[in-house]
UniProtKB/TrEMBL annotation:
Protein's UniProt keywords contain Signal: yes
Name listed for the protein in its UniProt record: Uncharacterized protein
Signal peptide: 1-27
SUPFAM superfamilies the UniProt entry points to: (Trans)glycosidases
Keywords in alphabetical order: Signal
Source organism superkingdom: Bacteria
Span of domain Golvesin/Xly CBD-like: 524-654
Glycosyl hydrolase-like domain ranges (all copies): 47-365
Pfam family membership, one: GHL10
Keyword DNA-binding: no
UniProt GO BP: carbohydrate metabolic process
Organism from which the protein derives: Nonomuraea longispora
């Protein structure tokens, strides 16, 4: 170790212990110290992890039109809770799918995908609700807009009478059985920007996201009907293709400028088609032979990056490793080269919808394919995360493909990649850290937008900067100033808390706070929203009952197969433990729900009548448990009794 690194480590350690005050140079010192630490690529400190929640045609949310306000809201909360369980830190939600709005816009009508009728008020403000719910879980909310699509049909008379596309027929054209705004008309571009900026200015969104629909994808035998527009506005362009690309470029550049002028902390990203151009057409292109978005839909995505008009790019690399037309590994390498040294972050769009789906190539029937994509990403430091299409496919987890992703890559939380050059917040101070029946309860003071909580085994007399170099010790991130660590066992721990600002710059961690070993007082609670809970795709999420532990619970129909929901816990030492369960009750729930306890010497099964006795802890019994972290309690669906089987929370206490 060089003298410089030793000096940096000593300075950092002293600051962490409160011996010296943090200095402006500490951030660079921290980076140098982190470089000297051995980090695990499986537990990166920073990574964007997101899923697209699509509203068009009710793909993800709402699941259908006409749901009540409470049902819509419960569904959306369940998507956010899914993201939290999968240790994601952002969601990308479609709020303008077809020239309409999921908020009370002065420019465009209410979306038909909410109520079934375009222009009908849904009875609440969905965008305000969604942003608040995402932030309550410390998830970034990226508002997803489709810029030009008006309708998935070609009949303007089916639009609500006040629709701008009906009031301005010259703004639109029909192509391929759909209606689009004409990107070549300056008034159209200004209108689209105004419609988007209304949401940006009025709501606390973290990002603005455009998808891959620019000019329409080609339809055989049809020509885009914009020759008259080209004649009027295309002076100076040698071809109509160059003019069309410039029209899209103007929207991208101007929208980025307007977003950053209004709210510098808001991130602007686009998810283009995965191929810009093929090397056979352009030496700057990729070693692929598929559709070229530069030529087919006039999306010059490489130019957006090179000009720095966007903050991140999320190319939809929806092909498997080794695919002859467009191999995943070829395109990640190409896009990594494109973004290198530009300041634009690369977040890969992943085809979760293909994993295990009927009719897909054999490569997609391999449960490891999706996870292997993220292994490939590790070869490229330019890749800072992934976003999965779409939420329903993450939940379906066909062939266990997404479970593979979580188990191999998302075992710990991750901070979002920092952006910009804002100053990191000051150092928090932990004011209390105490053991309780539900875990270790922490409280602290601080001035951050959010906080990162770290836990290190044992009573640490000094903070090693390597504790914080990756996410192996990261327990959670939160916007609150309190947290209960329900995963803590009975061992001694040292906790640290750091503060983050709106653009995710992290300040110096607090002085460590030691929690002594719990001995015989060990007790841990695992809720269905805890990281230790897992369940298959057939387990739904509900907040119907007023008796949940936490905000919701899981339910499933009984079947002649086990398919248990599991509660995993860290048992500190072998011994006898009292096992309790919490469930809401209802006459329609199961009268003999099987509960499996993974006791030493073999599993024990106890049937619980969930029709009554809910909203409180119910003792299953006292069992001898082995030490270690494992699935301790399962709730099985294998019962001949009727009614939903419920899985909500378990509590394990040293007897």
């Amino acid at each position: 170790m060089t003298a410089l690194v030793r000096t940096v480590l000593a300075a950092l350690t002293a600051a962490l212990l409160g011996i010296v005050a943090p200095t402006p140079a500490l951030a660079s010192a921290s980076a140098s110290a982190s470089a000297a630490c051995a980090t695990d690529p499986a537990t990166p400190k920073r990574q964007l992890r997101a899923m697209w929640i699509s509203s068009v045609a009710n793909i993800d949310w709402p699941s259908r039109t006409g749901l009540s306000v409470s049902a819509q809201q419960a569904e959306f909360r369940s998507w956010l809770d899914l993201a939290v369980r999968k240790r994601m830190n952002a969601v990308i939600v479609q709020i303008r799918p077809t020239a309409d709005a999921f908020w009370p816009s002065p420019h465009e009508p209410w979306s038909q995908w909410l109520t079934g009728t375009q222009g009908r008020d849904p009875g609440y403000d969905p965008l305000a609700f969604m942003v608040n719910e995402a932030h309550a879980r410390n998830l970034e909310f990226h508002a997803w807009f489709n810029p030009y699509r008006i309708a998935n049909h070609a009949d303007p008379n089916r639009l609500v009478s006040t629709h701008p596309a009906r009031r301005n027929p010259g703004w639109r054209f029909a192509y391929g059985g759909k209606l689009y705004y004409n990107p070549g008309i300056p008034e159209v571009r200004a209108f689209i920007e105004d419609a988007i900026m209304d949401a940006v200015s009025r709501y606390d969104v973290d990002g603005v996201h455009l998808d891959d629909y620019f000019y329409p994808y080609p339809v055989s035998g049809q020509t885009i009907p914009d020759s008259a527009t080209y004649d009027r506005y295309g002076a100076g362009f040698a071809t109509i293709g160059d003019w069309r690309r410039n029209n899209v470029n103007l929207l991208v550049r101007e929208l980025g400028q307007r977003i950053h002028a209004a709210k510098p902390h808001v991130s602007f990203g686009i998810s283009p088609f995965g191929i810009w151009r093929n090397a056979g057409t352009d030496p700057l292109g990729s070693r692929t032979s598929g559709l070229q978005s530069y030529d087919a839909i006039y999306a010059d995505s490489r130019e957006w990056v090179k000009q720095g008009w966007i903050d991140y790019i999320s190319p939809q690399i929806y092909w498997h490793i080794g695919f002859s037309t467009a191999a995943y590994e070829v395109l990640t390498a190409w896009w990594s080269d494109v973004v290198r040294n530009t300041g634009v972050r690369l977040v890969v769009g992943q085809a979760a919808y293909r994993a295990g789906a009927s009719g897909e190539d054999s490569a997609w029937q391999d449960p490891a394919e999706l996870s292997d994509h993220l292994h490939d990403n590790r070869k490229h430091p330019e890749v800072v995360g992934d976003v999965f299409f779409s939420a329903k496919d993450v939940r379906a987890d066909r062939i266990g493909a997404f479970t593979r992703v979580v188990d191999a890559h998302y075992t710990r939380p991750a901070l979002l990649p920092a952006r910009g050059s804002g100053s990191a917040p000051g150092t928090p101070s932990i004011t209390s850290a105490t053991r309780a029946s539900d875990g270790v309860r922490l409280a602290w003071n601080g001035s951050g937008t959010a906080y990162a909580v770290y836990r290190v085994d044992g009573a640490q007399s000094a903070a090693d900067p390597c504790f914080f170099a990756d996410a192996r010790n990261l327990v959670t991130t939160t916007r609150q100033r309190t947290f209960t660590d329900t995963t803590a066992g009975g061992s001694a721990y040292t906790y640290y808390v750091s503060a983050l600002n709106r653009t995710h710059q992290e300040g110096t961690p607090s002085a460590g706070r030691v929690v002594e070993a719990g001995g015989g007082t060990f007790s841990v609670v695992v809720d269905n929203a805890s990281p230790g809970f897992t369940a298959g795709a057939d387990w739904g999420t509900s907040s119907f009952s007023g008796q949940p532990h936490g905000t919701d619970y899981r339910f499933a129909e009984p079947v002649a197969a086990s398919d248990p929901a599991w509660f995993r816990a860290a048992i500190p030492s072998a011994g006898d433990y009292r096992v309790e369960v919490w469930h809401p009750s209802d006459p329609g729930y199961n009268s003999a729900a099987p509960h499996i306890v993974a006791a030493s010497g073999g599993n024990r099964t106890v049937s619980v009548d969930q029709r009554s006795g809910g909203g409180q802890w119910r003792v299953l019994g006292t069992y001898t448990l082995a030490a270690g972290t494992y699935d301790v309690v399962g709730v099985s669906r294998w019962t001949s009794a009727t009614g939903y089987v419920i899985a909500d929370a378990v509590r394990i206490t040293r007897a």
